[in-house]
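Entry type: protein chain
Record version: 2
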Amino acid sequence: MRILLLGPPGAGKGTQAVLLAAHLSIRHVSTGDLFREHLDHGTLLGQHDRARLRAGLLVSDEVTIRVIQERLTRADTRGGFLLDGFPRSLAQAKALDGMLAASQSRLDAVLGLEIAEAEVVRRIAGRRLCRNEPAHIFHTEFSPPDVPGLCDICGGELYQRPDDSEATVRQRLEVYGSETAPVLDHYQAQGIATMISALGQVTEVLNRALLALGKDRAGGPGGDDH
């Protein structure tokens, strides 16, 4: 199968992408992983895009499309793949349609994770990281430390990353709504997009995705998808 998984920040998309690809025995293709690979090897990404990536900005459409196009030519994607992080815009979606059509293929399904803005803010803005390495993660509501502001494991100071602040999270959601949400409209018009709730246990969300794809459900317990 060739699948695209979409979802706003805080929807648990990264977790679901890994689990879903493993359950379906297809290759998980993550733009984040690809960008890190190219940065490590000094390929494809120019100085401008390396600087943008390290500053937390989106890489240009041109470079992103080239990176994905190269990745989808590798042998390990011939049996199917799950795209995670691409396409992020309507222009990228149309480019993806074109590159798949050139190989006489197309996406089989597009899954969109649905979650309310308030829940996203609740999940991300409450996250706290330890300043020591490895950076253990806590949450002010879901997994609070025994002593406020201190790591349970090493006693290090806990802090909130700047991009986890409520204002930044809401800004990221606004960008998602204006740039990435139209990608769902594009694929809904093609009749291959399905929306599923991102609320609940990890396995519950995975089972919704599998049901939408007409596949067997996963078994076993799942943790909270926060």
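Comment: The first helix runs from residue 13 to 24.
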